[in-house]
Amino acid sequence: MPLKDDRYTYRVTWSEEDQEYIGLCTEFPSLSWLDKTPEAALKGIRRVLECVIEDMKHSGEEIPQPIASKRYSGKFVVRVRSILVIIDVTSFDCYPTT
After folding, report:
1. Contact 36, 22 (CB under 8 A)
2. Is 73 helix (H, G, I), strand (E, B) or coil?
3. pLDDT of residue 96
4. Does residue 58 surpass a pLDDT of 80?
């Protein structure tokens, strides 16, 4: 039975190592599914996720919330070091300056 209101984030990409397509789910980084076509890889990872979520429910584990359902503040904070480092790429020496 497919997940009701499946809002998880999926990605299908080619695996050079396995010579197959690999289906992935961002919210469950340890899960994957290999298959011959991108469509089959997506279908496979969705089936795996369905089984894993069902198992997590039965064992009382917390189920990750879909990224699409999360609320964010809208703030974008960048932290940088107060020291500037200049790198001479010809000799790979670092000269710290203030």
Report:
1. no
2. coil
3. 59
4. yes
